[in-house]
Design brief:
single chain, mainly alpha, three-stranded antiparallel beta sheet, 62% helix
Length: 415
Amino acid sequence: MLQSPKTTPKSKDAPQSIAALVNDLTALEHPTLKVPYEVFNKKYRHSQKVIDKEQHAVNSAVDEMEKQLMASATSIPVMVNLLDNMMERLRALKRKTSDSIDEDCAAVRACKTRIAHLHTFTSDTPSFEKRRLDRLMVEHCFRCGYYDSASLLARKTGVEELANLDIFMAAQEIEASLMRKETDQALAWCNENKSRLKKHNSFLEFYLRQQEVIELIKKGRKSCMDAILHARRHFSSFDDVRQYERDIQKTMTLLAVLNKPGDIENPYLDLLSEARWTWLIEEFRRESVKMYQFSPDSAFSVALQAGLSALKTQNCVSKNPEDGLQRNKDCPVCQECLSALADPLPFAHCSQSRLVCYITGEPLDESNRPMMLPNGYVYGEKALHLMASEDHGIVTCPRTKEVFKISEAQRVFVM
């Protein structure tokens, strides 16, 4: 945080530091506002369609009543029925309008909650950082499919309103249906979001229809005709069938060359595999992420990889089998749980090197001069003198476990 101008003069670096904070906030928090906005936009458009439909029904009822009034002979029972019909239409319009307004207001409140959360970035940065970490971990667990753990963590940390629970819990139901080898809910989701999926050039609906045909083929010869009729009915309904041509040909060839699913020589083993259902779940997750403008990778994953890359050096990934004794206990990249994640990442760009003591992690400078033991390892003077004071002038190398006198340590000069 910036200090008060009364105690610290204005610096040219202050605008740069503010810009850096804003860039950091923008990079990680873009989905925080974009996702609830997309939810609000979707609900608003749906509400508009519902209200227009009900309003059209009311107008039709009014037109029918006007026609009866213009007729030469109109009976009272007919007019009563028309009035009842119009009142029923008006009540339906009022009910659905009220429900739509409530949903829209809930979406607006979600946006305001996110904005209020982001405002704490400048007023209470430590609290903001803690809540952001909790929220990023919850979102990451949701996107990895750990719904129970994510929900529990969201309740424990109090970030339910910031973690898009409604979106992920709805996705969980669809994923559960796919695990049961059911495609109805996923196809209903595709139909509900058809315009968006078409805009993203999504193949999800085709893959679901393809899987339905494959399941019919797998039942045997008795269901082959059903598979052909199902393919004709649905494959032809797609706008550009040519982009699915190869997949359609491969699927329909199963009718002629279907072998046992375990046959190694079967060139269509990937279509017959049960793993396709897991692949469909992953494909649904990718499309759902695109739908609500999430980033391709979770913000937690991006932040973690950026941090590991900024700390990674050549010494962090030594191939020496004895490297376990040489890893820096204070370096996150050197920890076994994170080294595998850091392995494919680039090394940090360091224009200036800084020497630190292996034992204490303190910088090696004039106040903590570097001292070399006879075995060639260098440590800070403070750490060696502290070790010697506790063991009658004897120091033990933490890497090799060799024992030396403190008088044998020599000062190292760095040019």
